Each structure stands twice: as C-alpha cells, then as structure tokens.
Amino acid sequence: MGSYPWNPENAPIEIRTRGGIIPTWTIYNGSAGPLPYSEQDQLKTAPPEPITLIPYGCTTLRITEFPVVEVGK
What we know:
The chain has one helix and four strands. The protein is mainly beta and 73 residues long. The chain is globular. The protein starts with 14 loop residues before the first strand and ends in a 20-residue tail after the last strand.
C-alpha cells in the first residue's frame, strides 16, 4: 500500500451540518483545548455556518465531542 488511506481525501463518509465557532475555544498543544468554562463564552458563538465532519481517524485535529449551545440568547 503506497499511500496512507486514512486522510481527508479518502474519508469513507461525511456528515454535513451547521455549527458556530466559539472564539474562546482554541487549540492547545496541537489538540482541541479544554472547553471554555464560562457559559457566557459559549454563548458568544458566531452565526451557524455549514460544516463537514469526517471520521476521527482521517483528521489531524481530532475532536470527539462538541459543546451544545443555544444561539440567539
């Protein structure tokens, strides 16, 4: 096998949905950092935009759980 099959180009499935960016949630040591502690930080999300999710093993930035926030409060 000449090329590594687990990469974004060869992802066997995609989920397309909408999500907002939490500006205070950043990368820490090459990984998704801890979720913001303050509920106020989580409410300061950007408007939802289309995102595409692919399997965990096909990525370099791996997020296993996304926070759920209410938009518009």
